[in-house]
Amino acid sequence: MRTTTPLRRALITVTVTATAAVVLTATGSAVAVPVSGTAAAPHATAPSLSALHPVVELAAERLATADLVAAAKWGTDSPIDDPAREQQVLDNVAAQAQQLGADPDEVRVIFRDQIEANKIVQRGLFQRWTDHPDEAPTTKPDLSVVRQEINRVTSALVEALATTADDRSAVACRPELLLAALQVHHEDHLDALHTRALARALRSVCGS
Length: 208
Description:
Layout: H1 6-19, E1 21-24, E2 30-33, H2 53-73, H3 83-99, H4 104-131, H5 143-163, H6 165-168, H7 173-188, H8 192-201
Antiparallel strand pairs: 1-2
Helix pairs in contact: 1-7, 2-4, 2-5, 2-7, 2-8, 3-4, 4-8
InterPro entries: Chorismate_II_sf, Chorismate_mutase-related, Chorismate_mutase_periplasmic, CM_dom_sf, CM_II_prokaryot, TAT_signal
Enzyme class: isomerase
Domain Chorismate mutase: 33-126
């Protein structure tokens, strides 16, 4: 577990205070990120400032696949809510967590947030495309191929959660999470929709 030194705490405080806007989740917890820019884009990753950077980075990467899922479902009878698929994901991540020695119930809660965050993006894009048909996708990704990528990122995220279990239970978890969210937001140039979804995705990372 990484120790948060006075210098590190000062860096976190100054960085968050100077550059962040607070995005509140439904339960009142917060993730600090600047609210500007566009949707997620490829980036050159800067050196990680936070022990939780891999968790936030993978959560954002998983969110980026929501754009492809939305494009695949747009104009079809495939619903955004897919309870059977969601249950399968939750069961799989819990089983993987147990194999890695992580708390399966904790990982299940965190991935429930990932799923709800993904649906925030899908619903937001559906609304955008309904309001602005000229912005709607003209081609449909293969959903089975997209899900292969989702599965890859999901597995990597479970591993990151297992690796950072001590950091996520530490007193410094929330400021570390804030700093990681700031860095990933800057790297990925997240727009307002993806910023809001990322806040939802990270809600349970530090536990209660």
